[in-house]
């Protein structure tokens, strides 16, 4: 699983009840939950604070996730600044179809860019609640996770010395390529993966949204998506070959494809602007089972990934964090291990439900561009059913919005 002892020639060891590896939404939420309960913890992050506060990522939050943040005193800025979305629009066969999901379910989405949430969470954790955090750390390693005395070591960016931190638990929140995934035991960690064989060109445009809601374009040339992020910035996606070079997509080509794939009768053209981000995402999902290995508890992308097809990634990470943070507090302050004992099962039930919806929605998004007339026909039948049947519309809306209760 890991080396059995930290590197030699290190500085005197420190101790924290919990070490959190990774300062994304999951790691910072766990840290804030612990600090609110007066439990000391240390958050380790390989990037700088400036980097994590500016890194653009997800932006759609389910109502249950926002309620969970609000209940823990972590949603004040979000509620004051986020956009409230109550409907989305599908465009296919040259027509537009609105789905008023809030009217169907009484539930809505919030749009709040992930970097703003991370900024809020790190300020609350470090500046308000006085939590310990180290940025820019290098060569993080985990040790003795199968004992009751685990530890984490890292190289200090300022001194170049190895630091050792003893703890009771490690929360692994550092993604698929981080130190906590590298520490998983051979033969005990089972990783299920699915590759869609599809790429998405992820774009940020310095242009106001062209609609008051999210747009999904299903077109024979490929899927396209329009996601408002602010009054001045819009996220777009374009289906492309996996592994495609972003440099193959000039601004003229990007806007020509977006205009065509998101066009519909009776709607004005998209408002164009300068592209400020352009990268290709290969669409894939994975799930690590279980999510607990000795004293290591995985959360967020370290444990599972859902491609941005269904906008579930940040929401799943936050729900993991609610369960893990609450479970750690109960164990460390009350000796109640119930939450930690049930953590992996509770998370994975939700994760697999979202994985299934992501697969279903991928077929809806990409069937018309598959080149297979049969898939294209069944895809259009699925889309028409959503708008012909209130029952089908409600079932879609519940999955799209997150049918689970808050964490």
Walk me through what this model shows:
The protein has 407 residues and is α/β, with parallel strands linked by helices. The protein has a domain at 14-84 and 110-193 and 284-363: FAD/NAD(P)-binding domain. It is built from 13 helices and 21 strands. It has helices spanning 25-36, 49-52, 63-71, 76-81, 101-105, 114-128, 179-182, 251-261, 313-334, 338-341, 343-366, 373-388, 390-401, and strands spanning 14-15, 18-21, 41-45, 60-62, 83-85, 88-92, 95-99, 109-111, 132-135, 138-143, 151-155, 162-166, 169-172, 190-206, 214-218, 224-228, 234-240, 274-289, 292-293, 296-298, 304-305. The chain has an 8-stranded mixed sheet. It has a 6-stranded mixed sheet with strand order 9-3-2-13-20-19. Strands 1-12-11-10 form a 4-stranded mixed sheet, with no helix packed on it. Strand 16 and strand 17 (234-240) form a beta hairpin. Helix 1 (25-36) runs parallel beside helix 9, helix 9 packs antiparallel against helix 11 and helix 11 (343-366) packs across helix 12 (373-388). The longest helix has 24 residues, at 343-366. It is globular, with a radius of gyration of 22 Å. It starts with 13 loop residues before the first strand and ends in a 6-residue tail after the last helix. The mean pLDDT is 93.
């Amino acid at each position: 699983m890991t080396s059995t002892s930290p590197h030699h020639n290190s500085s005197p060891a420190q101790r924290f009840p919990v070490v959190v590896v990774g300062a994304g939404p999951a790691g910072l939420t766990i840290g804030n939950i612990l600090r609110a309960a007066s439990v000391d913890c240390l958050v380790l992050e390989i990037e700088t604070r400036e980097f994590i506060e500016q890194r653009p990522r997800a932006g759609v939050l389910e109502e249950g996730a926002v309620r969970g943040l609000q209940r823990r005193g972590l949603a004040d800025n979000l509620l004051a600044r986020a956009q409230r979305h109550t409907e989305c629009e599908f465009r296919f066969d040259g027509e537009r179809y609105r789905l008023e999901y809030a009217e169907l379910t009484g539930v809505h989405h919030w749009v709040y860019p992930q970097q703003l949430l991370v900024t809020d969470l790190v300020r609350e954790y470090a500046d308000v609640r006085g939590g310990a955090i180290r940025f820019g750390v290098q060569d993080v390693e985990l040790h003795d996770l199968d004992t009751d005395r685990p530890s984490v070591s890292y190289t200090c960016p300022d001194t170049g010395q190895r630091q050792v931190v003893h703890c009771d638990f490690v929360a692994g929140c550092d993604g698929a390529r981080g130190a906590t995934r590298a520490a998983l035991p051979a033969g005990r960690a089972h990783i299920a993966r699915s590759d869609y064989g599809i790429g998405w060109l992820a774009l940020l445009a310095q242009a106001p949204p062209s609609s008051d809601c999210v747009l999904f374009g299903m077109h024979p040339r490929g899927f396209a998506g329009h996601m408002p992020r602010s009054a001045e910035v819009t996220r777009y996606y374009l289906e492309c070959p996996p592994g495609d070079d972003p440099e193959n997509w000039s601004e003229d080509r990007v806007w020509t494809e977006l205009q065509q794939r998101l066009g519909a009768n009776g709607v004005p053209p998209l408002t164009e602007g300068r592209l400020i981000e352009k990268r290709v995402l290969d669409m894939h999902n994975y799930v690590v089972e279980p999510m607990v290995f000795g004293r290591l508890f995985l959360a967020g992308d370290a444990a599972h990934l859902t491609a941005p097809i269904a906008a579930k990634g940040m929401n799943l990470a936050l729900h993991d964090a609610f369960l893990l943070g609450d479970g750690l507090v109960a164990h460390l302050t009350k000796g109640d291990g119930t939450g930690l004992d049930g953590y992996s099962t509770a998370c994975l039930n939700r994760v697999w439900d979202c994985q299934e919806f992501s697969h279903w929605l991928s077929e809806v998004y990409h069937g018309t561009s598959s080149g297979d007339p049969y898939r294209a026909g069944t895809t259009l039948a699925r889309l028409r059913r959503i708008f012909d049947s209130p029952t089908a519309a409600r079932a879609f809306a519940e999955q799209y919005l997150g049918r689970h209760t808050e964490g």
